[in-house]
Amino acid sequence: MNRRLLPLLISVLALFALVAAACGSDDDSGGDAEAGGDTDEAAAEEPAPPDGPTIRVRGQDFSESVTIAEVYAQYLAAKGYEIEVLTPAGFRTEAIDGISNGDLDLIIDYIGGALSALAPDAGSSSDPAEIVGIIAPLYQDLGATLLDVSPAVDGDALVVRGDSEAATISDLASIETVFGASAACFERPQCFIGYTDPDIYGIEFADTVTIEFGPLLGEALAAGEVDAVVWNTTAPQIGEQGFKVLDDDMGLHPAQNIAPIVVSSVLDAYGDQLATDLNALSAAITTDDLVAWNIETDINFRESDDVAADWLEEKGLL
Amino acid sequence: MTVVVFAQAAIPRDIGLFEFLFGAEYWTGAGGILTSLWDTVVLCAAVVVVATVVAVPLATALAHHGRGELSVTWIVTLSRAIPTFAVAGLLVPISLRRGLGFEPWPIFIALLLLALPPIYLNTYTAVKDVDRGVVDAARAMGFSERHVLFRVEMALGTAVILAGVRVAAVQVVATEPIRAFLGGDGLGRYVRDGLGQNNDNLLLGGAILVAALAALTGVMFGLAQRLALPAGVRRLARPRTR
Q1: Global confidence as pTM
Q2: Are residues A47 and A173 in the same domain?
Q3: How many domains does chain A have?
Q4: Residue A232 backbone zone (phi > 0: left; psi -120 to 50: alpha; other: beta)
Q5: Interface touch B193/A212, C-beta < 8 Å
Q6: CB within 8 Å: B1 and A183
Q7: Where are the domains of chain B?
């Protein structure tokens, strides 16, 4: 029996391996070809292509960040920069590690999140300029430069079901609430610690559930497993599923504009051109664009690179 | 309104590995290691018991009667290729939408699918590989089919069957922590929180706890395996694992 079946088993496994390999290389070659093609075209048009090291960019492991990274990468590629888009991985910590240890050259992050990561004790501010004033020097210490912040904001949001009696976060203090958030929230002063701090919101939650950041938050909220989740203001499910964002009446949530951070040596190698180009792009992105991208990727399940390409095309930035 | 003590907030960022593993305050209380350990043990025990109750009779019957065992064995073998995390992850939204909550069904079913193959395959092999001469001798002596099955085939195969249960139990204990990433708790919570909060010592401490429990499970099943065998069979049996 075994002798007869062994070849069959091997061929089945080989088939799996082939399919897996084909899928993998498909994605890779697709991305490379696209980026390469853009570079060639742009190089042919532009009189003096920018000359400098390859810029490695990587999105964090959630769709909005991936799309943002694609937008910046494709925009720069079209301008003639050498761009390498790495597979999205990790979150803020890994991104900051990446630029400080030389694995990455460009990240795009939310300034309020960067504030809590780089200066956990600095408190919170809803003024972008104030946050930039704190984190820009800290990025300098890491050998990176924070460029102009975009008007696009994806802030923290405490989200409840549409039929909740609460309108502000303070209202939750008198309502029995099961709280759901990702593990990171539970140790952040601008998140769980701030909600429960008697000097700020002082909410005593009936229970807490740790939920991976993403669509599962909405599933848990809709199912009634939790009554309030920490999400982001641009999550498309908030509108789709009729949830509402509670008003942050005590001003706990920091301003969360997006901003590119470039390794300083790379920025210097390109001169002013790279900073100018990036600042022009950042200025063109709005909060509505972020929501629109998230609807495309999370509700319509389109690929981030296609969504990014379409938007750049539409704005005439390619 | 109840005030709950939160382990998430109580574990400091700069905690040392030994401080976490040997600090009494981290073992007790809500979200403490003991509570998490209990959550993990209860779920794993339930999974292994159900898997055994399902797989052993099925495999024994199929091996004894020699019917349809090929197709079932194939299905079971192929099912080992399905990643447990993917199964649980797919089941969580379904469970939530049906009002069944995060736990326990998605993780239970996923772990059950993980536990079934080793128990099934070992039981099948154990019964199938019993010396045909012994079986024929038993029949010749007037054993009924049921007695052949229980007193000869299963008795002689006990060591191998238990080895299958042991492999399944160790795998289940080592895999159960994925539950913490799907809205649950258990020992995996420290791994999850360690990852999410970039707290390497917490992550490492959680991993050590999980590994220790898995190792302990293996050892305990090894002892149980020795005790469960009749003295005569203990000499005869050559335990094999698949």
Answers
A1: 0.75
A2: no
A3: 2
A4: beta
A5: no
A6: no
A7: 28-80+114-230
